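re: the backbone from monday

yeah here it is again, tokenized this time
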């Protein structure tokens, strides 16, 4: 199900341009929903530092939170407040979004697409399309990201973080356009 969502931002689990991260790195028995609250809190307390490290060091620009429980846990354990955003593709889907730092956009929704029965293809497609609208991440090689960023600023954009060599192998920066959409502009370092 998630592959159908991430394809809307030009990513795929199959070509390794998307990856799945869990809040905790351990499989549980019983499954997560069958654990006592104290067990869940202990697992989160032990593993959230590892997830923070992954998010900081791996150059992740877009983090998708699949389901209300994950959204709540992320907000609580990362001290982040995501704002509700409009979703025109179905009454039961609620979406949230935030720019956690200059390099990371977080988008979540209330329905766990991996375990919810009765999720329609229209809802899945709608979530993917809305993620694309909210993220507005430019993917692929841009021959001269510095020049593209300069043109964007000249057209009214604001620098969120300047184009520069990043430790994860990209020359990259982020510009907010006049409508508030964030554009990640870059190319691989060679």
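seq for it, each position gets an aa:
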């Amino acid at each position: 199900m998630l592959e159908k969502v991430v394809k809307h931002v030009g990513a795929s689990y199959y070509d390794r341009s998307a990856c799945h991260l869990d809040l905790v790195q351990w499989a549980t028995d019983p499954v997560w929903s069958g654990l006592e609250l104290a067990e869940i809190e202990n697992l989160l307390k032990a593993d959230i530092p590892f997830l923070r490290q992954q998010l900081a060091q791996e150059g992740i620009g877009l983090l998708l939170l699949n389901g209300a429980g994950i959204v709540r846990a992320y907000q609580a354990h990362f001290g982040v407040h995501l704002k509700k955003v409009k979703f025109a593709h179905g009454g039961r889907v609620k979406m949230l979004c935030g720019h956690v730092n200059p390099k990371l956009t977080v988008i979540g929704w209330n329905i766990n697409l991996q375990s919810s029965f009765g999720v329609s293809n229209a809802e899945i497609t709608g979530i993917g399309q809305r993620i694309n609208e909210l993220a507005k991440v430019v993917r692929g090689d841009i021959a001269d990201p510095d020049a593209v960023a300069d043109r964007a600023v000249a057209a009214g954009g604001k620098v969120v973080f300047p184009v520069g060599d990043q430790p994860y192998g990209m020359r990259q920066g982020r510009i907010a356009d006049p409508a508030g959409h964030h554009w990640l502009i870059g190319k691989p370092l060679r």
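The chain has five helices and seven strands. The domain at 145-188 is CATH 3.30.720.110 (Signal recognition particle alu RNA binding heterodimer, srp9/1).
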